[in-house]
Backbone:
């Protein structure tokens, strides 16, 4: 059991030996993400104060181009990872294609690629509701020293070596896993340091919260409609409580602490749902499994899906194990 009150920096150093054959590269990468998180946190926090809200492409009162926060977060993350020369490739929900880094330079032998959703739930930006950054790390498939290819990014989620999120909420937290459980760190903004505040996070086996955009109810498959009715039925420990922020990181974080299920099903208007397999579902699924929870597309384990394109979408059911299993039962009936 990890002791509380150590810093993220100390935690990373202490746990480096968990990785077989570790060269410290992954630790350096997590450190770079920690730095990027602080930079983006700074931007998110001042969102109400400066002209960075609104549409990208608008011009603010000083005549400068306005940037939407998600565009800004994307730039900051990519810049930080590039500057540290710590990864060989980046794919982002905000970019059409992946970015290859220092691929021609033989001095760079980096073996990791990072996939990010720089600011998820960004429709909540303008209304001061928590948003998050989601990241995911894989070992490249192609040889080091050569340019990365699509193959390095289209790996099933079970190949992830690390994943996590930063939640810009009441307080800012960085929550991550390297395949040895899930730990949460809270930022002390006065000194800019993350402290271990939530060691060994785990989903309760079951819970009483269901999180879904019920406005789409009419378009959901029958199995999902039936499961929602099941959640609302007065029987045993039900009805459950409905909680939906519309910000995946925040809904996931609450459900992991309190027990619950998050659902973004397919519908008659969105064949594969809305969430992206590589940037949203895989990292959250890895975290969920590492926290004793479960993640499924209703029929199969998210982490087993072989991706076919960078921006692929999948239906997503994630949270307390028993609740996800019950939702699957309804889907498969
Ligand atoms: P985004 O990547 O465009 O921000 O979309 C992802 C977000 C999730 O955080 C959230 O759970 C979901 O979209 C909400 O979608 P909806 O408004 O359709 O319920
Ligand atoms: Mg997103």
Residues:
């Amino acid at each position: 059991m990890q002791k509380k009150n150590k810093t993220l920096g100390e935690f990373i150093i202490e746990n480096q030996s968990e990785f077989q054959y570790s060269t410290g590269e992954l630790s350096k990468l997590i450190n770079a993400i920690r730095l990027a998180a602080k930079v983006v946190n700074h931007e998110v926090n001042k969102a109400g104060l400066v002209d960075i809200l609104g549409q990208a492409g608008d011009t603010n009162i000083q005549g400068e181009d306005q940037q939407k926060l998600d565009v800004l977060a994307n730039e900051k993350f990519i810049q930080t990872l590039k500057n540290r020369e710590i990864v060989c490739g980046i794919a982002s929900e905000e970019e059409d294609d992946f970015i290859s880094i220092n691929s021609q330079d033989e001095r760079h032998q980096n073996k990791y690629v990072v996939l990010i959703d720089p600011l998820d739930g960004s429709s909540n930006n303008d209304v001061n509701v928590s948003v998050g950054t989601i990241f995911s790390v894989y070992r490249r498939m192609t040889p080091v020293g050569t340019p990365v290819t699509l193959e390095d990014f289209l790996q099933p989620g079970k190949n992830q070596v690390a994943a996590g999120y930063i939640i810009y909420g009441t307080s800012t937290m960085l929550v991550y896993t390297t395949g040895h459980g899930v730990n949460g760190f809270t930022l002390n903004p006065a000194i800019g340091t993350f402290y271990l505040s939530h060691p060994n996070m785990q989903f309760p086996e079951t819970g009483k919260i269901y999180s879904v955009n019920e406005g789409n109810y009419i378009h959901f498959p029958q199995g999902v409609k039936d499961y929602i009715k099941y959640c609302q039925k007065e029987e045993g420990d039900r009805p459950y409580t409905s909680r939906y922020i519309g910000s995946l990181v925040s809904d996931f974080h609450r459900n992991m602490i309190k027990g619950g299920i998050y659902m973004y099903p397919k519908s008659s208007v969105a064949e594969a749902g809305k969430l992206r397999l590589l940037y949203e579902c895989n990292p959250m699924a890895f975290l969920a499994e590492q926290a004793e929870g479960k993640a499924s597309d209703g029929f199969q384990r998210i982490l087993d899906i072989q991706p076919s394109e960078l921006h692929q979408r999948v239906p997503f059911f994630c949270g307390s194990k028993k609740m996800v299993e019950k939702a699957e039962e309804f889907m498969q009936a």
Notes: The mean pLDDT is 91.
